[in-house]
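Pasting two entries for a bug report.
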Amino acid sequence: MKMKQQLKWFLPLVLLALFAPWSAGLDKWLSSQFFSPASSSFSKAHYHYFIYHWAVVPALATAILSAVCFILSFVYKGLYSKRFPLLFLSLSMALGAGLITHLIFKEFWFRPRPIQTSLFGGIEQFNPFYMPKFTFPNFCKSFPSGHATMGFYFINLIILGVRLKSRLLKQIGIGSTIIMSFLLGFSRIAQGAHFLSDVLMSLVVTWYAALAIEKLVFDYLAKNRTLSYIKD
């Protein structure tokens, strides 16, 4: 069990270190597949705009509803046993997609979007995801992909399913994560809004935010409280 816990924290870092040397080449190649030199533009397919506006709704709705139900758990006894799972789902969104992605990285980690780089008709120089410039105000907010964090948010359902020993919840989490992260990540890359590494780093941010909130909520806040929430 201890080895599994350590792998959860360190394996993503190892994989990230292996990916980093290849990331620049993969970023440029994948983005170029959606760029038209003739029109000097990326894909303008209408379904990308639909995905951009609406595919974030399931994750936002889940987090907001969880926050509302968490508050109601102090009023309605029927929600008491679900208090900590609800808190976990709402705080993980606030930390991962909110604080880390939008208030820290996007504001200070200067990285031009594909469409802003000279590679694809822009004026900014391409730089790998691991070479930020740290400027403020920052007008190049490619890193990481905020929309992709909405897709990867459903990793929290997988973690919660394992914690609650709920196979159904885990399966819903796996399916939702694969579908929503692919739709949002693919769409944003095709639009020239993000590089592949921006999308993958959204996964890393979401994963570590989820692990941190899981530890806070279940290993600290729930300590010495009712354990009924971990029963099937």
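Entry 2 (this is the one that rendered wrong in the viewer):
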Amino acid sequence: MVLLKRLPLLVFGPALFVFLGVAPLFFKHTPEFRQTYWRWIKRGLRVVLRLLSIEVRVSPQSLQRLMEDQNSVIAANHKSHLDVVALLSIMPDEKWVTFSPKVELYKIPFFARGFTAAGCIPIDRDNPRAALRTLIKAVSEKPARESLILFPEGTRWRGEGVGPFKAGVMLVAKAQKRSVRPICIHGSDKLLPPGSAWPKIGAITIEVLPSFTPDEASTDENLARLQRQVAEAHERLDAQT
């Protein structure tokens, strides 16, 4: 039964991928195309998750926080390739977001067209200082309602709980006088752990935590505060499952 439900993905998945790569060729000059493009992405990912029988659980309070979020940098933990899909699927249309794919992906014209249409920020991960400068400059040009989503662990964390956070998210927020919006993603690694090619059926829980503005404390202290908030939320969700 599950296999039958997932069979449409063999058609819908590639069709969505091709559509998102080709659409900018025809629509990129239309008014407010970028916002329309993000809505297509979110709706397409919701269909993908539904066909995979993966539920994304998010409370009304978390959704309200996203709808009201302004002038922030979003920081989420990262344990699975499903994290991006799940996070984008719950974003309300009132909240605009963007990502920072590695610059190597822009060498593939199909990807480059889609990333550019979405307003993503290419970064060179082999040059952290240059990447940080790129992010700070790009965020300075974003409207208050649009937030850059960063995964402070830097890569998928394979251990228990939440991995060590890197300082980039805090440096970007402080440089542009933005708040930090912590988000905890729980359960994605159980459905699609590193090394797996096909996700299991199940649920992912996303909790949007209260934002905070980095204070005059050191970057390390503010970063520790961020990591503690996400880790405590992850532990709390662990205890509920």
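Dev reply: Rendering is fixed now. As a check, the viewer should reflect this: The chain has a mean pLDDT of 92.
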